[in-house]
Amino acid sequence: MNLLTTIPAFLLAIAILVVVHEYGHYWVARRCGVRVLRFSLGFGKPFWSRRDAHGTEWSVAPIPLGGYVSMLDEREGPVPPELLNEAFNTKPVGQRIAVVLAGPIANLLLAVLLYAGLAMVGSSVRIPLLVTPTAGSMAALAGVNGGERILAIGGRETPGWGDVRWELLRQLAGGRMPCL
Description:
single chain; alpha+beta; Pdz3 Domain; 4-stranded mixed β-sheet; two-stranded antiparallel ribbon; 4 helices; elongated
């Protein structure tokens, strides 16, 4: 992969992680009755923004190193008395903890869903087939013709090249690698 595809792929992955994380905070804050002022992907002066029916400004900013959810809070500035019940700092401790934990939990749920999806789709395994050895090499003298499939090493099945590598490592370690 070259730099022209690596950088955009990295920025896309970061954007997805940030949006999921910040949306976790946003979603729980709204359920707890906290007024959310801004949901931003990126930092700096927004180059795109819009307001929804709840008064939240949704924005995209040029510095793609994260994002944030800005909530109404007396510690950030004066809050009109009629909006005090919507300020983050006036909510019970349990609700504030829930809002703070919602971002990491959203990322954890994303990871679980992605891994579950990968498990359902499956993955391709390269079958361990031997190539034709050089004439006069140890493999040729041992009778390897090429095209043979490695089925097992030391009595352990090896359905893919990864399994072959781990089993060879186990053999090199004298079988003292029980976790592999």
